[in-house]
Design goal:
- Chain A: Keywords: ATP-binding, Nucleotide-binding, Transport.
- Chain A: InterPro entries: AAA+_ATPase, ABC_transporter-like_ATP-bd, ABC_transporter-like_CS, ABC_Transporter_VariousFunc, P-loop_NTPase.
- The complex is a heterodimer of chains A (348) and B (295).
- Chain A is of the alpha/beta class.
- Chain A is 40% helix and 23% strand.
- Chain A has two domains: 240 residues, P-loop containing nucleotide triphosphate hydrolases (Rossmann fold, 3-Layer(aba) Sandwich); 62 residues, Alpha-Beta Plaits (2-Layer Sandwich).
- Chain A is built from 13 helices and 14 strands.
- In chain A, the strands form three sheets. A six-stranded mixed sheet of chain A has the order 6-7-8-3-9-10, sandwiched between helices. Chain A has a four-stranded antiparallel sheet with strand order 2-1-4-5. Chain A has a four-stranded antiparallel sheet with strand order 12-13-11-14.
- In chain A, helix 5 runs parallel beside helix 6 and helix 8 packs across helix 12.
- Chain B is mainly α and 295 residues long.
- Chain B has one domain.
- In chain B, 76% of the residues lie in helices and 2% in strands.
- In chain B, strands 1-2 form a two-stranded antiparallel sheet.
- The longest helix of chain B has 35 residues.
- Classes of the chains: A alpha/beta (348), B mainly alpha (295).
- At the A-B interface, helix 3 of A face strand 2, helix 1 and helix 5 of B.
Chain lengths: 348, 295
């Protein structure tokens, strides 16, 4: 269950991001009280956030949470029912078509034109953005597509298509880059390549909004995240802030603990009060942050020096918020995301 | 007018003008149809069928001689009225629904491209295709015919073919735009094709028969002016009437069931204007449908 009332959450989202703003660049995207309603269905409710240049914002949420709607609103493809949205300081209401020049977008599962070559596709989109043709060659080289530039897209792998998609998105050197599920169906190497490119763009001052379900991958890349559920903002902030909001305990894992040490440990009132996840091969406890120092002290007293304490991961935080939603398939969503994450970690 | 040059990061570029955008979309459409051999196929079909009508049309009467200009045109108009709308429908049915299915429509709309730019660009591209196909198909036929007809018939032949090609292109564009309207209104390619084939069936095959039957059976109550108006509402009949009236071969219009149109005093110029109006109205309708959609 969420720990904040709607108002509190939204104020917190704004406050968190505005506080960061003082030490960071200009505001690239700003949403104030953003709502989108389709007949009786509320796709987004009263969303507030700010994103600054050189930052990466992860949009997290179950399918249908409102992530794609938000992206389409930023792109000017969907009009908000209420609220204001500013992209590069320009209101969505007064935005002219040329404002799209500062936006780059990679849609989910775009198939482009199968009968065209990579070079033809990039040249076509370059003409539509008024980008000089020489930029096409630079991007083909940069994204490792030069050798395949004359091959038809029908012969491209999924990874090559996504590289081409990202090259298309950065054609006009955008100030704001929107990526909708960019790593779906990609192997770890292809995903790593995309994230590496994202890091480069971020270093160049590009603000990136990425909608993804691959939490393990995005955790290290994002500066902040918006967790959406049923069109509402459930939580916002960077990873440490999300951990604080969710108040999830850290995971303590003990290595090389003798049976005698383990018995002594669980007989202590402090450890007896902790949630124990131990199994035949692992000794694990959930440790609330407030007790962390005491737990470490006790471990040292018992001469247990080989242990690790891992704070809650983005995946844990996501599960925590999704579990709080009153959705019939909330637990299924959590387990599906968890399985995907586990598989990725295994592959890695 | 000078354009503003925007500097973003290391890239420098100019926001493209409307005409540049329309031309870019048009060239992409034209190249697509060149690449997938649709253009060659359409031109080939028009050429083969028009050669057959022109040089082998007399075979049904038991002789193989070159038909008179009027008979050739009558055959070619009948041929064109079937083939050109069908070709235009096949060219345009997936223009928008296909791009929506592949995700490229969403992407295109994130570019500094207004929706009417996209409609105009596609229309221009498809116009290039139909112009090339008609000129190649009918143009080659007229060149060959010129070598066989007598000197005095050449002028009428050339004028007739110019009208046939020009009005054929306009008729194709009417059906291309009908294709856009349907393609923008449905969510599946197969559905768009089905609806358009039904429209083709009604406008090309059924409409005339129903009208003629009504005229014959309700001759006393049917207003002649209303009949003429109903004929001219249908672009395919407009095309047929235009070619029969504009053709210098006198015998032609007299033989046609559409000769009644001649009595209205409508000339080819007015008919061209009506075809152009069809294109304008359907273009506006397609842009309006597109502008109301959220992707």
């Amino acid at each position: 269950m969420s720990h904040f009332s709607n108002d509190a959450r939204h104020k917190q989202a704004l406050t968190l991001m505005t506080n960061e703003a003082s030490s960071q660049g200009q505001v690239a995207v700003k949403a104030i009280g953003l709502c989108k309603r389709y007949a009786k269905f509320e796709a987004l409710t009263d969303l507030n956030f700010e994103l600054h240049t050189g930052q990466t914002l992860a949009l997290l949420g179950h399918n249908g949470a409102g992530k794609s709607t938000l992206i389409k609103m930023i792109l000017g493809l969907v009009s908000p029912s209420h609220g204001e949205l500013f992209v590069q300081g320009q209101s969505l209401h007064t935005k002219r078509p040329n404002a799209n020049l500062s936006l780059g977008y990679l849609p989910e599962n775009v198939s482009f034109y199968d009968n065209m070559t990579a070079q033809e596709i990039l040249s076509y989109f370059a003409r539509l953005k008024g980008v000089a043709p020489k930029r096409v060659s630079i991007l083909l080289e940069e994204f490792g597509l030069m050798a395949a530039k004359d091959k038809r897209l029908s012969t491209f792998s999924k990874g090559m298509r996504q590289r081409l998609g990202l090259a298309q998105a950065v054609l006009a050197d955008p100030k704001v880059l929107l990526l909708d599920e960019p790593t779906v169906g990609l192997d770890p190497l292809a995903s790593a390549f995309l994230y590496q490119k994202m890091a480069q763009l971020k270093a160049q001052g590009c603000a990136i909004i990425i909608s993804t379900h691959e939490l393990g991958l995005v955790q290290d890349q994002m500066d902040s995240a918006l967790i959406l559920g049923q069109g509402r903002l459930l939580a916002a902030g960077d990873l440490s802030q999300l951990r604080a909001i969710s108040a999830l305990p850290s995971q303590l894992e003990l290595h090389r603990v003798s049976p005698w040490q383990y018995q002594q440990l669980i007989s202590l009132p402090l450890f007896a009060s902790l949630q124990n996840h131990s199994s035949a091969n692992r000794v694990c406890f959930s440790v609330p942050d407030a007790l962390k120092a005491k737990v470490i002290e006790q471990l040292h007293l018992l001469k247990i020096h080989e242990f690790s304490i891992a704070p809650a991961s983005l995946q844990d935080i996501f599960h925590h918020f999704m579990a709080g939603l009153n959705r019939p398939n909330a637990s299924a969503v959590c387990s599906a995301v968890g399985e995907e994450q586990d598989q990725r970690e295994l592959v890695a | 007018m000078s354009q503003i040059i925007i500097e973003q990061g290391c890239a420098q570029y100019c926001p493209p003008r409307a005409l540049t955008l329309i031309q870019a979309v048009a060239m992409k459409e034209f190249k697509d149809n060149l690449r997938n051999r649709w253009l060659g196929l359409m031109a080939g079909i028009l050429l083969i069928l028009s050669l057959c009508v022109s040089f082998m049309g007399s075979a049904v009467s038991g002789t193989v001689v070159l038909l008179e200009s009027a008979q050739i045109f009558s055959g070619l108009v009948t041929l064109a009225v079937f083939i050109l709308p069908l070709g235009a429908i096949l060219l345009s049915y997936d223009s928008f629904v296909g791009e929506r299915e592949s995700g490229t429509l969403l992407l295109l709309l994130t570019y500094p491209l207004a929706r009417w730019h996209l409609v105009c660009g596609k229309l221009l591209g498809h116009a290039y295709v139909m112009i090339t196909a008609c000129v190649m198909g009918f143009g080659t036929t007229v060149l060959l015919l010129l070598a066989f007809v007598e000197e005095h018939a050449r002028h009428a032949l050339i004028i007739g073919f110019i009208h046939l090609i020009f009005s054929g292109i306009l008729l194709s564009l009417v059906f291309v735009l009908l294709g856009y309207c349907v393609s923008l209104s449905v969510r599946e390619k197969a559905k768009a094709l089905g609806v358009l084939l039904l429209l083709w069936f009604v406008l090309v095959l059924v409409y005339d028969l129903v009208l003629l039957t009504a005229l014959v059976s309700l001759a006393e109550v049917f207003n002649r002016q209303l009949f003429n108006l109903l004929i001219l509402i249908n672009p395919t009949d407009l095309f047929r009437a235009l070619n029969l009236l504009a053709n210098p071969a006198d015998s032609l219009s007299a033989k046609s069931s559409l000769a009644l149109i001649a009595q209205t005093g409508m000339g080819p110029v007015l008919m061209y204007a009506m075809l152009a109006t069809w294109i304008g109205l359907l273009g506006l309708l397609a842009s309006w449908i597109f502008s109301r959609q959220e992707v």
